[in-house]
């Protein structure tokens, strides 16, 4: 079955909304079983739905109120690109490839872009271009 740009744009938005709501069953239902996630700002790459869910849950542990607001979205040729404003409060331990950053209580507000490639109506590949330098500065791990 062919899926239109509108269909996959809505499917991509549903993933962001499910993350915001920490609705992990809904989030999982939008992913291909062999989904791959990569984060350019940290170099993290995970394969499979469970590994991707664990990574997302880790962000929610670090910032339980974190949510993404989709500012712009374009879709075509099986791919959706979203500009997302991520905002939350760093009240839990943040796991990073370099180690754990303890809670700072600081607010985080950072732009990222998600490039999501679909197989049918399921997200198969997600590449997150996240401004990690700004995140680290805002949580106090690096000088501003």
Descriptive notes:
The N and C termini lie far apart (49 Å). The protein is 30% helix and 42% strand. A hairpin with a 2-residue loop joins strand 7 and strand 8. With 144 residues, it is an alpha+beta fold. It has a six-stranded mixed sheet with strand order 2-1-8-7-4-3. Strands 5-6 form a two-stranded antiparallel sheet. The protein has one domain (5-138): Nuclear Transport Factor 2, Chain: A. It has helices at 5-20, 24-29, 49-62, 132-138, and strands spanning 31-39, 45-47, 67-76, 79-89, 94-96, 99-101, 107-119, 122-130. The protein has four helices and eight strands, in the order ααββαββββββα. The radius of gyration is 15 Å and the shape is globular. One of its GO terms (biological process) is polyketide metabolic process. InterPro entries: Cyclase_SnoaL-like (IPR009959), NTF2-like_dom_sf (IPR032710). This is Ester cyclase. Pfam families: SnoaL. It comes from Solirubrobacter ginsenosidimutans.
Structure, briefly:
This is Ester cyclase. The chain has 144 residues and is an alpha+beta fold. The protein contains four helices and eight strands.
**Please, how many domains?**
1
User: What is the name of the CATH class?
Assistant: Alpha Beta
* Overall pLDDT score: 95
Quickly give the structural class: alpha+beta
Strand order of the largest sheet: 2-1-8-7-4-3
Report the order of strands and helices. HHEEHEEEEEEH
Contiguous uncertain segments of 5+ residues: none
Rg calculated over all Cα atoms: 15 Å
The CATH architecture name reads: Roll
**Which percent range fits the helix content?**
25-40%
Please give the count of helices. Answer: 4
Ends apart, CA distance between termini: 49 Å
CATH topology, by name, is Nuclear Transport Factor 2, Chain: A
The oligomeric state of the chains shown is: single chain
Give the CA-based shape. globular
Strand percentage lies at 35-45%
Extended strand count: 8
